[in-house]
Amino acid sequence: MTYKCAIVGVSGGRANGHADAYAHIPRGRLACIATRNRDNLDAFGERWSVDSRFTDYRDMFVREKPDLVHVNTPPDVRLEVMEAAEAAGVGALIIEKPLAIQAEDYLAILEFSRRCRLKVAINHQLHFHPRRKHLQELVGEGAIGEPRFIDASARMNMAYQGTHVLQSIAAFHPLGVPSAVFAQVSGPNGLQASRRNHYAPDATAATIRYEDGVSALLRCGTNGAYVLADDERVNVHKQLTVFGAEGHVHWSMWGWETLVRGRRERGDHNYPDEDILGQAAMTEAAFDWLEDDSQLHPLNLDAALRDFHIVLKAYMSALQRKEETLASELQPGLIDALRKALSG
Q1: The total number of structural domains that make up the chain
Q2: Does some domain include residue 336?
Q3: What gap in Å lies between CA 219 and CA 217, rounded to an integer?
Q4: Range of the domain at 254
């Protein structure tokens, strides 16, 4: 079976990555696209030979009824796209991160998730990068012993890459149940009005405690680690290290290292090459889920909601200057509260 696929939002560069990945997706074809700007729509359609073009994604959902849609919209319209896709009978969505920005958005999407039949995954394609997938399997097989501590970071703020970091932590510790978060934040620049509405403090540091005794350190923003000393682009510095009782594994956008049974190995990889294969494998996993409900996508909406809950509790912890449990109630108006606290 060949699945009919679509993209909502093709004015930015991210959509080109989705389209490019279809050269590695045997079960899918990019059949239709939608974006509000007609010039951008036609330019993208010409570049990728997509003739079915819409300036209203709702019209595309109803007329084309795609099996799978990649959603590249600002975070504040995620829910309305999901609701329109559910109403039109779309099979599945793969939504760009972050899932939300505010606690109010999170709660509305959480309520939608409890009543929808639509299959939703979040675009954390790193999970499917060939190198990272291999390292995840090593940890899952017990090659470094029981995990003890996870260090993970990115140089972009929590809204841009925080959930990437949290999903990475969860991928290497999939049975871990987070219980509490203690965090600090600084810097008001990322909380100012912007076109993308990716509001977050400039720097966040959070320690996450798990019920099994494992802990994780998350750093996002200007306090994140540099992976390449001579490259100051903020988007190329995601990294993660898992320390176990008998060794460790390390992954970054450009390299890797393992210490397994006393043997140390390391090497490099090319992020763009890894990324296109990760995008393709992520999309193929969505097809598996469409064919079989038991083949739950690892980047499913419930998993994303759990990760975003940690983001919100980190903000609450920083504002209240105390550890927050995952069981405590969410504070409304967190972004405004952060603006007030950090702009003084």
Answers
A1: 2
A2: no
A3: 7
A4: 127-269+306-325
Edge-first strand listing for the sheet containing 239-244: 263-268, 255-260, 247-252, 239-244, 147-154, 215-221, 203-210, 178-186, 324-325
**Average pLDDT estimate for 284-309:** 97
8 A C-beta contact, residue 138 and residue 111 = no
Please name which of 240, 156, 143 lies closest in space to residue 196, comparing C-alpha atoms. 156
What tens digit of pLDDT does each residue of 39-91 get? Answer: 999 999 999 999 999 999 999 999 999 999 999 998 889 999 999 999 999 99
In a domain, 343, yes or no: no
**Tokens 């703020």, located at residue:** 157
Per-residue pLDDT at 111: 96
**Is residue 119 located within the same domain as residue 134?**
no
213-263 pLDDT per residue, tens? 999 999 999 999 999 988 889 999 999 999 999 999 999 999 999 999 999
Same domain, yes or no: 255 and 291? no
Structure-block tokens of residue 100: 């939300």
What's the CATH code of the domain at 85? 3.40.50.720
Does 344 have pLDDT greater than 80? no
Torsion angle in degrees (nearest 10) through CA of 156, 161, 163, 166: -60
In angstroms, rounded to a whole number, what is the distance separating the alpha carbons of residues 25 and 251?
A: 25
Taking alpha carbons only, the member of 114, 212, 176, 138 closest to residue 307 is: 176
Tell whether 153 and 73 lie within a shared domain: no
* Structure-token pair, residue 319: 């504002």
Same domain, residue pair 11 and 53: yes
pTM of the model: 0.95
